[in-house]
Amino acid sequence: MFMIGLYHPCWTRTIEDECIKNFGTVVLAKDKKERKAIKATPAKPEHIAKANSRLMRFRSAVGPEYEVLLYDKPAYEGKVPPNVHIGDIHVASAALVLRTLAREEGSADNVFIVSNNLTHLAVEEMASIGIGVVSPGDFINKLNAAAPAKVENALLKTINDLAAPPYTKEDVLRLLVRHGAKETAKF
Known about the structure:
Distance between the termini: 15 Å
Structural class: mainly alpha
Helix content: 55-70%
Shape: globular
Radius of gyration: 17 Å
Largest sheet: 2 strands, parallel
């Protein structure tokens, strides 16, 4: 959906570091027991390699504009609502940087934090400062509500492009439902 211009993903080096550290736990573990076992040990080299490979593909797809800078400066961190969990201040601060840049450029773009960790991100307080905090499924549903034809085209392209292993329309629809994008899965 990024490739057809529905959104522009941005992230920080700190988020990349967390991705690498938690890749095995979040992406590779098949169940809660396996997640707990992976989390209790240092990241395995093969997990780090897979995480770096995936990040490299993300960076390549988005281009150098992916990286949010200045998020670690007191001018931004100091504006993060107090109910944002201390471990997620960097995420909220990065969103503040993006919102500030959008306003300075006169852009009407919305800024969203897309996360499954809504409880740590003070959803209502972040909304009060102009930043949406939504789950991945809700984000996809919002995109679908705004541009259903574009989302359908993006999903069909995804189905056609994912050849190793091949994915069917049913596979993609199942993933949408699993991640909370039930409305979008009705296409």
